[in-house]
Amino acid sequence: MVSFYPGPARIYDEIPTYVKDAAKEGVLSMNHRSPEFEALAKKTATLFRKKLGVPANYKVLYTSSATECWEIIAQSLITDKSYHFFNGAFGKKWFEYTLAINKNAEALLFSREEKIEPADFSFPYPQATICLTQNETSNGTQLDAGILKKFRKLNPAALIAVDATSSMAGIQLDFKQADVWFASVQKCFGLPAGLAVMICSPRAVERAKIIQEKLHYNSFANMVSMMEKWQTTHTPNVMGIYLLMRVLEKSDGIATIHQQTVERFRKWEAFAESNDRLKPLVENRQVRSYTVLPLKAETSVISTVKNKAKKAGFLLGEGYGELKTSTFRIANFPALRDREVKALMTFLKSLKK
Ligand SMILES: *Cc1c(COP(=O)(O)O)cnc(C)c1O
Q: Is ligand 1 within 6 A of the CB of residue 7?
């Protein structure tokens, strides 16, 4: 079965070998206070700079999930106000998790087809945290690099946090344009679940040091000070970090991957636009995600396609939430092979009549 699910997703073929290596190399019982772990954490951070273009002065921190990152930001970095822009389920969940911790969270909804213009928004609290979901996995939309750049330029005093869970390691992100980026690894990284990363700017670190929130096991200020010694506040997913290191080490680098992702996305786009029963859910080409493609059709067609696909060896992503019966989603993640993508396209075309 080839998984086109947008997370947990198809993993890289090399993962089983890396797991064996981890066992052989003693990684599975590695102590997280040991020099070996410190070397692993350091090497992985170096690879983030080399392979994903993370700036030298940004910190790489480990958590267990993107959901945990939502809470860390809410508890440790948001002082007064947070502004949450969203058009789908993940952005909404982030807002709701934040609201439970901090009553001053404010939602700014936009529609799935809308390309937001940062200049249309002004924030009465200039030091607020602006929360953006770069890639909304539930409906296959994205905020492009230009939008992120404008948010940064227009709000120099704000802290900008970006959920890039289903795009980091799949497309090129300009990390300088925000302060906190996070992603769990079971999507574009092509790894098994149970690990997430937070990429943090000097400004985010500075703010955490001023706030000094230390009430939680995962308080950001503590995480940062431990990582200054290449350590973590608690025993982390050491095997996950090792697998991440191996995948990054083997990676061609994000410029190449980005190009492949976009090329493949264009093929899917052309496929969907020329198909007479399956159509792209998102009509506005300017906001379509490069990494998650929802297709819509009549309800009866959707269930037939999903069932037949399963029998043919393709696992399609369920439509998310209220889109469950009218759409399915196809991941366009780097670990998928060209031949698998071609095979799925051929299969979907064969169902046409
Ligand atoms: C999958 C996903 C999450 C949740 O990730 P977990 O690792 O399950 O916490 C959050 N945000 C986005 C955009 C996602 O795609």
A: yes
Nearest atom in ligand 1 to the alpha carbon of residue 196 is: 7
Mean pLDDT of 34-60: 98
- Is the pTM higher than 0.85? The answer reads yes
Q: Where are the domains of the chain?
A: 2-8+253-350, 15-250
| Ligand 1 centre distance from Cα of residue 349 (Å) | 31
Distances from the Cα of 164 to the Cαs of 42, 94, 137, 155, 216, in angstroms?
Answer: 22, 12, 10, 20, 24
333 pLDDT higher than 60: yes
Q: Quick check: do 2-8+253-350 and 15-250 share a fold?
A: no
**Token pair of 143, please?**
């905020």
Q: Is the dihedral of CA 41, 42, 47, 52 positive or negative?
A: positive
Fold of 2-8+253-350: Aspartate Aminotransferase, domain 1 (3.90.1150)
Q: Which of 71, 95, 137, 142 to mutate to test the pocket of ligand 1 (most atoms within 8 A of CB)?
A: 137
* Residue whose tokens read 């802290």: 159
Q: What digits encode the pLDDT tens for the residues 119-133?
A: 999 999 989 999 999
Q: Tokens at residue 163, please?
A: 């959920």
pLDDT single digits (tens) 240-261: 999 999 999 999 999 999 999 9
User: What separation in Å is there between the alpha carbon of 185 and the centre of ligand 1?
Assistant: 9
Interhelix angle 338-350/299-311, nearest 10 degrees = 130
Give bridge partners of residue 132 from the DSSP assignment.
Answer: 85, 162
Please give the class, per CATH, of domain 15-250: alpha beta
